[in-house]
Write a structure and sequence with these properties.
With 113 residues, the protein is an alpha+beta fold. The chain has one domain: Arc Repressor Mutant, subunit A. The protein contains 5 helices and 2 strands. A two-stranded antiparallel sheet has the order 1-2. The protein is elongated, with a radius of gyration of 17 Å.
């Protein structure tokens, strides 16, 4: 899925940002993504996805305050936009529509045979 559509990894990153709310920055996103999705990723892959999502209008970022723990460096904090939330909802509807069709075609009791 190219252009204004999301790929699977972008969708997972966007969902993770949404779940972290005001605590979403590179490392926290990576850690939560690995914890929740059981998916290993590099911090570079996360930042690349964040950059694409910001260009698509699904995220906004801002610099946090200077902290002593980070040697005076600032965190780039990410927040989901209304467009990002709507995009996730649309993707969920598509997935649920497909699952309903599959479940109707292959009921759970038959699928395990």
């Amino acid at each position: 899925m190219k252009g204004d559509k999301l790929g699977e990894f972008e969708e997972l990153v966007l969902l993770t940002v949404y779940g972290l709310d005001s605590e979403a920055y590179g490392v926290s996103i990576l850690e939560k993504l690995e914890e929740e999705a059981g998916r290993q990723a590099s911090i570079g892959a996360v930042y690349a996805a964040l950059s694409r999502l910001e260009k698509k209008g699904c995220l906004r970022s801002r610099l946090g305050g200077i902290t002593r723990e980070r040697g005076g460096r600032r965190k780039r904090l990410f927040r989901i936009t209304r467009l990002g939330v709507e995009t996730l909802r649309q993707m969920r509807q598509v997935r649920e529509r497909i699952w309903r069709r599959l479940d109707a075609k292959f009921p759970a009791s038959e699928a395990s045979k």
